Every structure is written in C-alpha cells, then in structure tokens.
C-alpha cells in the first residue's frame, strides 16, 4: 500500500491517478472537510489524518510500505502555516512512518531551497528535506522548477483584467507539467539511481518568466500582463505585512519566481526517468482546461461523482475503476 499526502491538491491528484492506472493500491491522506471526492473515480482508499497530529499519522501509516509526500502550504492561515505543517508536520510524518515500518519516501520539495532564501516557503521545504534525510527512511527528494499550473493559475485569475508578475520577468524558468512531475515521483519509488538524492527537475521548454506568463494568458483567453522591478516587488511584500505575515510570505515567494533563474537541462532527466517531457504550451493548455472545469459546476459534475457521494470510500481491489458510478446525479434530480 502506498500513502499519498497532499492527495487532494493539483499535484497529489495526478500522483494518485498515475499509481491507480498502474494498478497500485493507494491510500490518500486527507483532512476532514477537504474536497477528497475529486478522487472518487480513481478507486483509491482514504484515511482522515493531519500532518499536525502525529497520532493520526501513526494510524495512517499502518500497513504502508512507501510514501509519496506532495503536501505543503499554499496560502497560510493561523493554524496552517509553513512552520506547523511544512516543517513540524513532515517531521511528524517521517517519524510516524519510521515507527510503523515504512521503508521509503519520495518528497516533492522545490527548486531553490538550497539557495538560502529568507522566504518561509523555501526554508520550510528545506527543513522538511533535512528531517527526511535524518529519519532513517530510504528517501528521494524532487526539487521542481515552478509548475506550469502556477502560471496558468496566475493568468486565470487575471484573465478579465491584469495579471501581475511580481518581478521584472527577465529570469529564465523551465516550468514543469504537474502530470510529468507526478510521473517522476511515481517512477522514483522504484528507481535505484535516485535513492538518497535530491534532484532538480523541470520541463523541456526554457522561457523567461514573463514569456511563460504571457503564453499562459493566451491559453486562458486574455488578460493583460504587467511586470514590476525587483525593488518594487520587495517593497510590496513588506507593505503586505500590514495585512498579515502570510501575505508577505506569499508575495516574497512569487517575487522569486519572477526574479531568479529556475532552469534545468531536460535531456538527462528524460534519460533518467524514461519520460518524454511535455512542452510548455501543451502543458499550460491542459492546466487551463482543468482549472476551467473545476470553476464550472456543470463541467465539474461531468468529471466527478456528485457531492452527495463525498463520504463514500472505495477500497482498491473491491471497486475496480470500471465498476464505479458511470456519472453523477444532477442537482435537479
């Protein structure tokens, strides 16, 4: 049995689906109240737990052999910040996994964690990496460049107005498709060459961050893109402190994406993982289509089991993919 954390996120969902397509039994770790019903059609099982609650992790790791950890914090809240979840939460996970006899973990971190950025998002992931390396588990860390979905989501929010690049946008990036990253994480579970290594990964297309955002804006159907000097981005992040530390942290993270280089040579990665990486325009179009379907209730109903089934748990082996409900009930039925 393989445990996937962050399973209800954009990356974790791809990991769950990739594993289930391979016929692997998957236990998705989900929080109560999260939209785990998006995964109903995969046939995975669920376990309600929280990285901040070690006792729940001990139960979640029972019978688990390997872990793919995609968990992280996007927008911080008072009880869900980088320290409590990214740092301490993952330390809890590795500790519980070790106690329950889990032997291997793949952790999806971020490119740039080793650069000394004074940004909690990067620093938290760096510290989670360190606790994994010290846990006694067999491990692999993937450090991805910004995902194509990052640019698609930014462009989507500004499609009817203006999208802001929090930096000059002249830096180079190799955005990676969430689907490709998920496949790398799955392959890393059984790839001897990546054991005990932290590997930077990215996509096959090198662009400036401004070009990446421009192309994403075209993919979502419009919106004007504006950039700002690094100095202005830094001042804006400090001013955001008045709204709360989480806003300062978020803007500081974004400023790095549009200021510093995040690139890799794709050829060695394709040889190592045996993958043909998805070109940027194709990947961002796929991301845009998915974001659009999630934003449209009717389109969403076509993709997932209806909300009234959100408490259903499908056990792998007992509910093959072909036996799951063929379509959702309608709200008006």
Descriptors:
globular; UDP-galactose 4-epimerase, domain 1; 12 helices; seven-stranded parallel β-sheet; single chain; disordered C terminus; alpha/beta; 333 residues
What's the helix and strand layout?
Elements: E1 2-5, H1 10-21, E2 26-30, E3 45-48, H2 54-60, E4 66-69, H3 82-99, E5 104-108, H4 120-133, E6 138-144, H5 148-157, E7 162-165, E8 172-173, H6 178-188, E9 198-201, E10 207-208, H7 209-220, E11 224-227, H8 230-239, H9 245-257, H10 266-273, H11 280-295, H12 297-303
Parallel strand pairs: 1-2, 1-4, 2-3, 4-5, 5-6, 6-9, 7-11
Antiparallel strand pairs: 8-10
Helix pairs in contact: 1-6, 2-3, 3-4, 5-7, 5-11, 7-11, 8-9, 11-12
Overall description:
With 333 residues, this protein is of the alpha/beta class. It has a domain at 145-177 and 203-264 and 276-295: UDP-galactose 4-epimerase, domain 1 (Alpha-Beta Complex). It is 41% helix and 14% strand. The radius of gyration is 20 Å and the shape is globular. 48% of the residues are buried. Residues 305-333 have low confidence and may be disordered.
Question: Judging by the overall fold, what is the CATH architecture of one domain?
Answer: Alpha-Beta Complex
User: What is the element string, with H for helices and E for strands?
Assistant: EHEEHEHEHEHEEHEEHEHHHHH
- How large, in whole angstroms, is the Cα Rg? 20 Å
Stated plainly, the CATH topology of one domain is called UDP-galactose 4-epimerase, domain 1
Q: Structural class, judged by helices and strands? A: alpha/beta
């Amino acid at each position: 049995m393989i445990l996937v954390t962050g399973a209800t996120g954009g990356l974790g969902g791809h990991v769950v689906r990739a594993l289930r397509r391979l016929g692997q039994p998957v236990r998705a770790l989900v929080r109560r109240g999260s939209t785990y019903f998006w995964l109903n059609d995969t046939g995975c099982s669920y376990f309600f737990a929280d990285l901040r609650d070690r006792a729940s992790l001990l139960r979640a790791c029972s019978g688990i052999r390997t872990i793919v950890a995609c968990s992280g914090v996007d927008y911080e809240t008072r009880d869900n910040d980088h320290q409590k979840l990214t740092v301490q939460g993952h330390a809890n996970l590795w500790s519980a996994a070790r106690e329950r006899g889990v032997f291997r973990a793949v952790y999806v971190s971020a490119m740039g964690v080793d650069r000394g950025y004074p940004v909690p998002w990067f620093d938290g992931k760096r510290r989670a990496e360190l606790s994994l390396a010290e846990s006694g588990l067999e491990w692999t860390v993937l450090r991805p460049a910004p995902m194509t979905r990052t640019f698609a989501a930014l462009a989507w929010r500004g499609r009817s107005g203006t999208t802001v690049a929090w930096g000059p946008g002249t830096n180079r990036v190799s955005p990676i498709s969430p689907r490709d990253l998920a496949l790398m994480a799955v392959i890393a579970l059984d790839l001897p060459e990546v054991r005990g290594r932290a590997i930077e990964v990215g996509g096959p297309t090198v662009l400036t961050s401004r070009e990446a955002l421009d192309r994403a804006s075209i993919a979502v159907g419009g919106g004007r893109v504006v950039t700002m000097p690094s100095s202005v981005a830094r001042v804006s992040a400090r001013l955001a402190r008045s709204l709360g530390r989480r806003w300062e942290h978020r803007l500081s993270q974004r400023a790095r994406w549009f200021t510093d280089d995040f690139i890799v040579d794709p050829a060695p990665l394709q040889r190592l993982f045996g993958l043909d990486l998805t070109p940027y325009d194709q990947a961002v179009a796929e991301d845009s289509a998915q974001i659009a379907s999630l934003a449209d209730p009717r389109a969403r109903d076509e993709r997932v089991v209806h909300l009234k089934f959100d408490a259903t748990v499908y056990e792998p082996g007992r509910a093959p993919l072909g036996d799951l409900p063929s379509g959702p009930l309608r709200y008006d039925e």
